[in-house]
Predict the 3D structure of the following.
Amino acid sequence: MASDKKGVGLSFLDSLADEPPPPSPPPPPCIEVLSSQVSSSVKCTLEPVNISDELTLLKGRVSTKEVFGLPNSDLVPGVYEGGLKLWEGSLDLVKALCSDAENGNISFTGKRVLELGCGHGIPGIFTCHEGAAVIHFQDFNAEVLRFLTIPNVNANLSKKLQPAAANEANHDTGVEVRFFAGDWSQIHELLPCVNDNEKDLNSSGQSPTSGYDIILMAETIYSISAHQNLYGLIKKCVSRPHGVVYMAAKKHYFGVGGGTRQFMSMVEKDGFMAACLVAEVADGSSNVREVWKLSIK
Ligand SMILES: C[S@@+](CC[C@H](N)C(=O)[O-])C[C@H]1O[C@@H](n2cnc3c(N)ncnc32)[C@H](O)[C@@H]1O
């Protein structure tokens, strides 16, 4: 699953399957992390990530041990959800976005984008690079935002976001980049562009400015127990009627049971969104990976 080192695969998730998971602690409180709260107390080294022949982005690398006191490659459900690694799905997602944009299937210009479970935030950074007006990054862990996502945004987008602070509306460019930490069951209380209430799901009389035009997520559906909360959040956040969701994930996460099959089956049963497979990646380096696009029926 993690791709910082090729071949690391699903090892740390597999190890979780050997014993029943301990009950998760209560989730951390939802907070907005300001870009000024970036942390430099841990060494962050920058590495290039090749997106295409024309575009190379930068990603930081920090030690999980130094940030969380956990061994590298570890994931502790409900405590640290793996955001310090760059997972393969993130890059699958960016490639799918590139190709959909090239084919005229999507434009990012002026759009409101939410990246859920962002970790490094490379897909959200890409949409900002391509002209999105609002990019909100969400991660379970505030530490991931402080130690990694904000440094990545600064490394890739500083020219675009200057001279205003990255978390404030930039009066020159109109770009708004903000960061939110918290659990999918609660974060809607904090996210600025959430639809007013669940009732709106069956009505069309909502404000045209509410909701996100594009929701992105990569490698967020490995745990079946989180599917309902994540999908519920998407429904609360997606702009109606034209908002879309791009989701990159593995077909199956061995050992933990999640995957695109289970998630899509839930989406299909619910009936609110239609799903379309936009990319399939079977490169032999890991389980088959997919990118799906969801739109409102
Ligand atoms: C495996 S990481 C993927 C990170 C990044 N998207 C990537 O592909 O490189 C899973 C991400 O999902 C988020 N996540 C997992 N469970 C969550 C939960 N219950 N509530 C909020 N976020 C959660 C975490 O923020 C974590 O960064």
Observations:
- Residues 1-12, 198-203 have pLDDT under 50 and may be disordered.
- The chain has seven helices and ten strands.
- The first strand starts at residue 31 and ends at 33.
- The domain at 11-296 is CATH 3.40.50.150 (Rossmann fold).
